Amino acid sequence: MNTVRVQFSWTCVHGPRIKSGVTRFLPTFLKTAALTLLALPAAASAQAPALVADKGDTAWMLTATVLVLLMILPGLALFYGGLVRTKNMLSVLSQVLGITAVAILVWVLWAYSLAFDAGSKYLGGTSKLFLSGIKGDTLSATFSAGVGIPELVFVAFQMTFAAITAALVIGSIVERVKFSAVIAFTVLWLTIVYAPIAHMVWASDGLIFGWGALDFAGGTVVHINAGVAGLVGVFFAGKRIGFLKDAMPPHSLVSTLIGAGLLWVGWFGFNAGSNLEATGGAAIAMINTFVAPAAGVLAWMAAERLVSGKPSLLGGASGAVAGLVAITPAAGTSGVIGAIGLGVAAALVCYWFVGTVKHRLKLDDSLDVFGIHGIGGIIGSIGTGIVTAPVLGGFGKDGYSIASQTLIQAEAVAVAIAWSAVGSAICFAAVKYSLGLRVGSDAEREGLDISDHGERAYNF
Amino acid sequence: MNTVRVQFSWTCVHGPRIKSGVTRFLPTFLKTAALTLLALPAAASAQAPALVADKGDTAWMLTATVLVLLMILPGLALFYGGLVRTKNMLSVLSQVLGITAVAILVWVLWAYSLAFDAGSKYLGGTSKLFLSGIKGDTLSATFSAGVGIPELVFVAFQMTFAAITAALVIGSIVERVKFSAVIAFTVLWLTIVYAPIAHMVWASDGLIFGWGALDFAGGTVVHINAGVAGLVGVFFAGKRIGFLKDAMPPHSLVSTLIGAGLLWVGWFGFNAGSNLEATGGAAIAMINTFVAPAAGVLAWMAAERLVSGKPSLLGGASGAVAGLVAITPAAGTSGVIGAIGLGVAAALVCYWFVGTVKHRLKLDDSLDVFGIHGIGGIIGSIGTGIVTAPVLGGFGKDGYSIASQTLIQAEAVAVAIAWSAVGSAICFAAVKYSLGLRVGSDAEREGLDISDHGERAYNF
Amino acid sequence: MNTVRVQFSWTCVHGPRIKSGVTRFLPTFLKTAALTLLALPAAASAQAPALVADKGDTAWMLTATVLVLLMILPGLALFYGGLVRTKNMLSVLSQVLGITAVAILVWVLWAYSLAFDAGSKYLGGTSKLFLSGIKGDTLSATFSAGVGIPELVFVAFQMTFAAITAALVIGSIVERVKFSAVIAFTVLWLTIVYAPIAHMVWASDGLIFGWGALDFAGGTVVHINAGVAGLVGVFFAGKRIGFLKDAMPPHSLVSTLIGAGLLWVGWFGFNAGSNLEATGGAAIAMINTFVAPAAGVLAWMAAERLVSGKPSLLGGASGAVAGLVAITPAAGTSGVIGAIGLGVAAALVCYWFVGTVKHRLKLDDSLDVFGIHGIGGIIGSIGTGIVTAPVLGGFGKDGYSIASQTLIQAEAVAVAIAWSAVGSAICFAAVKYSLGLRVGSDAEREGLDISDHGERAYNF
Amino acid sequence: MKLIIAIIKPYKLDEVRDALSAVGVQGMTVSEVRGFGRQKGQTEIYRGAEYTTSLIPKVRLEIAVPEGLAPTVLETIQHTAQTGTIGDGKLFVLDLEQAVRIRTGETDDSAL
Amino acid sequence: MKLIIAIIKPYKLDEVRDALSAVGVQGMTVSEVRGFGRQKGQTEIYRGAEYTTSLIPKVRLEIAVPEGLAPTVLETIQHTAQTGTIGDGKLFVLDLEQAVRIRTGETDDSAL
Amino acid sequence: MKLIIAIIKPYKLDEVRDALSAVGVQGMTVSEVRGFGRQKGQTEIYRGAEYTTSLIPKVRLEIAVPEGLAPTVLETIQHTAQTGTIGDGKLFVLDLEQAVRIRTGETDDSAL
Ligand SMILES: Nc1ncnc2c1ncn2[C@@H]1O[C@H](COP(=O)(O)OP(=O)(O)O)[C@@H](O)[C@H]1O
Ligand SMILES: Nc1ncnc2c1ncn2[C@@H]1O[C@H](COP(=O)(O)OP(=O)(O)O)[C@@H](O)[C@H]1O
Ligand SMILES: Nc1ncnc2c1ncn2[C@@H]1O[C@H](COP(=O)(O)OP(=O)(O)O)[C@@H](O)[C@H]1O
After folding, report:
1. Domain range for residue D19?
2. Complex confidence, ipTM
3. What's D91's domain CATH number?
4. Which residues, 6 or more positions from C292, have their beta carbon under 8 angstroms from its beta carbon?
5. Of A188, A266, B175, F112, which has the highest C-beta tally within 10 A?
6. F90–E97: do the CB atoms touch at under 8 Å?
7. Mutation choice for ligand 3 from E29, E98, E100, E107, CB with most ligand atoms inside 8 A
8. CATH architecture of the domain covering A52-453
């Protein structure tokens, strides 16, 4: 039976850095994880216990995977689509659909191998190109010794992460970039940005994983990465015609709310699924994924109430997303009070950024990819170092040091930002100077639905 | 390992009231439940067998919890939102979102403890405030001896029940009440109405549980409770300007249908999830949750066909919800024929109520919370006494007495109505005479989207 | 404990036709299936090992069932509804809702028994009318020896298949047929077309199952069947007034995209659920259900780009559905490369059919039921014979013969087409000459929303 | 004949229609428009970006009336549609040369 | 020049437009309106509450034509839009003083 | 007084409104219309079925102005709305007999 070893990095804090006596104070489910990991770096796959799959885990991971797809289609498509003007609605939906399709194929053809096959510190290997050698009974390791899940489920679960991350990016450059450019960008970006960062953070031989950084469900890999790429995209694509001059209110906040709801619903697949098993660890991730966005909703709306007098639906939805983004890296290790804190912090800072800073900078990050995923991801990733502390109700080990863990977190964030910035710039430049990024200005005025797709969203 | 004992009341009918010889005739899964319960009141936790969690159960309960959130966001938000006028669409969506957020926080901070911690007959204790002491490996008992699920999953599952119940209430008073009033009301109401009723009905030391009333998934706790609270709300909030004078057709039955579909889909989490295990008991609940609403759809549409000549989509959707409401308390114990009967009965009576009685009473229960959830809940809760009977294909024990069980059901209904009515009146009064309930009449005419939230739902 | 034996036909290829020595080369999960089946035809239920249910399987099958309902409501309803003109939106939603409701009741009352009870080669028996004798602990066999799932879950899972198939049919005749006609048709059609075909293909004593045809999740039973019935429907119902003269653009591609997304999401329940267990077999089905539609999206959009210059959202969504349809029968046995091939092939042929052939034939298959489900289903069902081959990365046994399996597939397709065509013609004729199929021409011009249901979809 | 164009507040529509029926107007044509004028629009804020719509939803009535009925109609609308707050709207009167009822071909006063 | 306003049944739009093209009309402006008149609206029932809309969807055409073309246009529309059932609509003719083509600045007849 | 009807391209609306404010126009009424004219519409293709909409989204302005202001208004719109490409739109001028401000009952020039 083939087995692969993939470990999410958050457990690594219990890895080489901790003495085994310490594990006595950990809750059982963390103990198992810790013990596995203590054994890991030294023993490698040779000594690894034979993996056995539990159908309960498989059932949950199948479900979690489906939930992440729900986040993208129709979730993110609607969330984003509702925020643009009517004339660009279909272009957003098409781009999200097209990116998802292309990401799925890139993933099975090469990106999974580059991200999760054993390789260097920066990139995986090539032995799993085209998923070769992976059968129905090939298992991937989970956090618990001897427990595996079918590798194809792991492939599919991670595939949805790659797809949503790529789809998130374009939120900053909608209403002006070409469909073809977006598709080409996705192929490049998943290859030279996403796969390496996923490898560094989540593969057991990855650089950042080796540092012991915590990233339960993708604070760096997904959110910071997408946010930074989006920001870079704005520099390459430029502002929309009429930015800060014409009114560009969201054409359907109803779509946006449907999308926000589906994002929240699907995020349980994202976060609780990242536990890889149907255990109390998933339950911790689940409860945190309820409270952080709830706190985000209320914090953002409260801030609006104070600042502009009226709490808005878009504010509430934005607060939910900010809370979800922030709790993502901490979902498995934070306590509920910490999660509330993260949700509030992320909502307030993001509100300040997208409501004030962004306009001052005249930054046309159209749907606030950087403002919410980037900023929220940074707050969450660094905050994970804090909320994991047992004194704050977190599920870190005894003797957990906020200072040292937070430093590691900050280093991880720095690497993710740098890699994403440079890599994304390369990808955007490549597309810009080959296919071109933007549609013509007449086409932009007319709307991308007609000019790029020859369709109209509504014919009431 | 911490364990908590929470038993849903429907099994109690096999508790102290039955002689153990009788259990020989029960299907296995009920036997186990019955035996557990026989042991319960006397033995308490001291003698309870150590609980073990099965990953299959955990997988199902994680999923079920996600499904109930789907019912609320975007489900209920769209179902309700589609029924109001365009100018109030966002206010409905915002209120559902805000209530959900606040309910989640109230639940983890104090309401879970008040509902499910051991306490008095009327209210739980305070040892679980802030979920203190609940870790990833803390288990809650299910209906089967020795089988537990992670308590945090139970907390999350029940949290979604609290949230949807609070959100249901406001259907009767939309298009006129303030966002802030709704939020304040939710905090109070979950505390003094929802938590006590949940405790009375579902906690093993609760009053109504002790009587042996059957409420599998929330006929009294959720539907009667929300319906009555909604009715009380109408008295405090008053009618909408223009009620029975201006045309107020639903602004988007498409939204309403999306919502109805998601409610049905999510209701499987609600009902089959209330089995707490992935067993044949969940399968019974699932099949009933298919047939009762299906019967409701057809019964309501048939009634419309006879009365006004045309079966309508809104009628079909309303029939589905009425059927879902009615089967909720009986989902685990009814046979399919009984479920069909309940679905038909609920649809017909609710149709008559909202189509005829309500207008005669000049009652502005705007979205028919009382008319469908209240009335449907009463029919379901009392009908549970009937359809559980084995002679009607139900899964009650041999020697099951329709008369005596139905009497118990009626008593439970009476208590739920009384408590909800009085408690809700207190909450509404408190809000009305502090913050005020209604927006000004100009604001109401202009629509709450602009006046309360400063946004517009659609900018096509 | 009652047990029933239901086997999906794809495993049958490993049945009587293979020598037991061959099983040594199969992946474990297929081995088990193969061994079970080797024993089956001879030994029958007498010798069958006692079935035991695993909670992980039950959890997954509960989830899968819910996912298929999500495909119908709101999935298919929105997908179809978005494609019609505003004035017929509610009629489509109502028809999908009504069909679903009626299908559920027909299924539990008689169609499940006719499809899955032991009977003749063409039709099941009557011992399970009204689901009689099926309790919470009655189990159905899966593909693995000794592994069962609660039969009520199997009933529910299969019920959703019947419902969606019936709902698919009406896509060809929307905007002109009466609600009452659609309901009556559904009752007849499920009885004399769907139940027999399901029995022939999936029941262990069915004709086509006996041939060893592969149909993992319903290529023949669902898609070819619905497509052919839709085509027959066009002949009976006739064209819409104004067909090929008036512009009839989709009124809301946003609805269609939401529907397409939910179809894709729910299809994992459909395909991976058809594995009946939470194992690597479900993982194979899942990964294929990602890549085939992804390939379909890109192939259809690429074809549009070449032919008309612009890749469209509707094209992408159509490609996704074509890919999903085509992979359905092959989901459990195809490798990812084969799945990509099937997705591309289906998308291109369907594109050519609906974009060119259909207009030449002046065929008013309004929403392309035949063009996508019929054609895509035929490609998938026959293609299954090819992509299952191990040389192409498929999971067929060693010594697998593409030629002979493809021949069997073609025969199965031929029978499905013939039965569906004749049976559907009988059903449509019966309805046409009793109730009548079409609304009056004024009613059609005014739109069915008002004329048939007395409602309006949007009152913005 | 006169063609009277009235721009009014949307929620006054039902009232105005009823009042006009009462004075003998048998038909009118209504459209949704947006008005720009003294009345200031609401400020909407979306994620911190402020939009002040100077274009406010109004309803536009187009009413063809026989010469003699025009003054009554004007007065009726002015009365009914008035709330006394800014943005109540305008009445415009044009000369109508000819009117035809499509169904019957009747013309002028008898077409209205 | 004349400005002809035609209120017709929505599904007649395509036919009328084609017929007008045929008689030499080169442009028109179309809007969706709701008409109040002799034609009674449908009764819609939502959960038992009845709403009778007296406002029925119509299409409004605005066609500027040279003096000489006006009679033909009127006749063409009357012919094509007629179904003989109540609610077929109206034709109104106003005097048009001036017309300008924005693109070129051409005026009057040559602007149409 | 004159009633000026301007049919312009939708994205020119803001510019035109600002320009008119600048020359002293205090109000106008805007509606969304679809125009038929020399400008050809886009071809939309849905699953292979081609639809060429000859009806193109335009914005219609209705502006009542005192006699004296009319020429300035016409010129301003013509200037601002012009892009030089086909489909820029039209200006129509009608004679306006009477105007009333509903709120105050003021009439004619002072009502505008
Ligand atoms: N000169 C004008 N031409 C056409 N319509 C006008 C004109 N002035 C105002 N209107 C219309 O009348 C409405 C009300 O005008 P406004 O100036 O806001 O209030 P009031 O009439 O109470 O002074 C405007 O929204 C606009 O639709
Ligand atoms: N006096 C009027 N002024 C303006 N529009 C009118 C008038 N009378 C009727 N209309 C328009 O003409 C349409 C048709 O009129 P109606 O009285 O229903 O039928 P018919 O013209 O066949 O008698 C109405 O819906 C309305 O839009
Ligand atoms: N005769 C007409 N009557 C009314 N509106 C017209 C007429 N001709 C053109 N229009 C309007 O003017 C718009 C622009 O006209 P078009 O012929 O396309 O371009 P251009 O004015 O540049 O020649 C049309 O879309 C239509 O709304």
Report:
1. 2-111
2. 0.93
3. 3.30.70.120
4. C323, C324, C326, C327, C339, C340, C342, C343, C346
5. A266
6. no
7. E29
8. Orthogonal Bundle (1.10)
